[in-house]
């Protein structure tokens, strides 16, 4: 494959891509939780509209606050996912450039020097 630096860049790219996939899974789970909390809040709103009990309004507000915190965590994981995707792409490009550089160095070292051509 080439030099050690190329292998390290490829490994970093694969590792970052795996981390991004893990972040994607976590974001999906948190969004499902947020949807469930929204449905629960809607049910509490419907119950409040029929009973006009202030305890139901407080419960709905608490549920909405919990949903907001879950979405904030989801957005944090999503930012981490985007950064890891960027890292994976940059590392893959670096690996390719290092691969090309290593090949060029081998080609240049195989060519005879100008002094050898004169003899």
* Unreliable runs: none
Mean model confidence by pLDDT: 89
How many E strands? Answer: 0
Distance between the ends: 35 Å
Order of helices and strands: HHH
The structure class reads mainly alpha
Overall spatial form: rod-shaped
What do these coordinates show?
With 119 residues, this protein is mostly helical. The chain has one domain. The chain has three helices and no strands. α1 packs antiparallel against α2. The longest helix is centred in the last third of the chain and has 57 residues, at 54-110. The chain starts with a helix and ends with a helix. The relative contact order is 0.16.
Give keywords.
0% strand; 119 residues; mainly alpha; single chain; 3 helices
Task: Give the secondary structure arrangement, pairings included.
Blueprint (H helix, E strand, L loop, with lengths): L3 H48 L2 H57 L3 H5 L1
Helix pairs in contact: 1-2
Care to give the gist of this entry?
With 119 residues, the protein is mostly helical. The protein has one domain (4-108).
């Amino acid at each position: 494959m080439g030099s050690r630096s190329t292998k390290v860049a490829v490994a970093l790219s694969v590792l970052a891509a795996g981390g991004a996939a893990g972040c994607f899974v976590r974001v999906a789970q948190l969004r499902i939780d947020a949807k469930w909390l929204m449905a629960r809040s809607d049910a509490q709103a419907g119950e409040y509209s029929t009973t006009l009990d202030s305890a139901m309004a407080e419960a709905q507000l608490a549920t909405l606050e919990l949903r907001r915190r879950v979405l904030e965590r989801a957005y944090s994981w999503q930012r981490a996912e985007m950064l890891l995707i960027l890292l994976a792409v940059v590392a893959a490009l670096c690996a390719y450039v290092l691969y090309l550089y290593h090949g060029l160095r081998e080609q240049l070292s195989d060519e005879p020097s100008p002094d050898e051509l004169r003899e």
